[in-house]
Amino acid sequence: MKVARPRGVDDLLPDAAGAWQRLDMLARSVCHRFGFHEIRTPVFEHTDLFLRGVGEDTDIVAKEMYTFPDRAGRSLTLRPEGTAGVVRAYLEGGLQAAPQPIKLFYASAPMFRYDRPAVGRYRQFHQTGVEVFGAASPAADAEVITLAHALFAEAGLTQAEVRLNSVGCPTCRPRYRERLLAYYRPHIDNLCADCRVRYERNPLRLLDCKVPSCARLAAGAPTVSEYLCEGCAAHFATLRELLSTADVPFTADPGIVRGLDYYTRTVFEVVSGDAGALCGGGRYDGLVETLGGPSVPAVGFAIGIERLLDALARAGGRAEPGEGPCVFVVCAGEGLLADTLRLTSRLRAAGVSAEFDLLGRGVRAQMKHADRIRARFVMVLGEEEAERRVVAIRDMRTGVQEDVAADAVAEWVKERVSSGV
Q1: Which of 101, 285, 293, 352 is disulfide-compatible with 297, CB 3.0–4.6 A?
Q2: Structural domain span for residue 47
Q3: Which residues of 59-83 are buried (b: 16+ CB within 10 A; e: fewer)?
Q4: Could you tell me the pTM of the whole model?
């Protein structure tokens, strides 16, 4: 029987890996520019972390987690999202005692959810996210949203749109909850099975249902903005002012509620056309305390990497292939394999990416292979060149070829690459 990968996971082949690496480097660059520092957390945690942190009534915990007992009988879960693990690390690592705010990011971290596979939705997927601890000001919310906007713009997704809402706080949300229940009460029999459970356990999630009949009901539901307390209303107004000042375009959308229990006040998504939500986040001021720590305000977001790469491909057409080696060394004479390897090793030691033929092909076949793998320069080492202690170097972009002293080839290549010639 042919061996195949499990349903809902994907392979990252070399050309796709190149696009992934470029996006990863961009994300790291933007995060560092904003003063964020990298954190890496385990790929699995104790199940209780997600039960307490994400919420037992969320779809993630109720339906989508990969949970299993270890050999000692302890319940472990492959992480379905990043924030709960970062909060646990913040507390366990003693970061609450360090000067605040603490600004952290994680990059291309694997996540796992047992969901129905679809375009942009996998059972193993990856997220890049940021978290800010210790800042209650709407300036922190503006900081993370501005970072997300910068990342999408620099990635080339200029049509991405920020959608923004406030879901209130424990002071004002109960009043809204009662109003929402009253609105839905006459329609309970028309709700989908999931929404009938949400009605009892987590009414705000009724607004996030994608079932058409439920979505139509949600469109007419009262909005939380009508019930915000003075503090939440002021926070939301200041955030909108700050985003406008930072030239970050946004749309206030009362339908954005997010699917996790820990959100308070600010929630937002970044959407792009048919690709839907590529990024989601918000403020979670009570989560640190829920997980056993002190009362620490916090805000953050996560980006779905597979979804973002798919959106970039749609926006810009077919993805460009990854770069080839800077140099391909052609062995053009019998008995010159050792010299070819020596030259290749010298280039690599000098920081130049270089390859040579491993199949014993003729010169013409080697040249064709160098072109196929998109090498920038080809160095031909033949018996004549070896005798004269030179290497014939061809620029594959221009076709120009010249002889260069064998002990100077690395410097010759690096000079041309750095000068853009």
Answers
A1: 285
A2: 14-172+228-316
A3: bbbeebbeeeeeeeeeeebbbbbbb
A4: 0.85
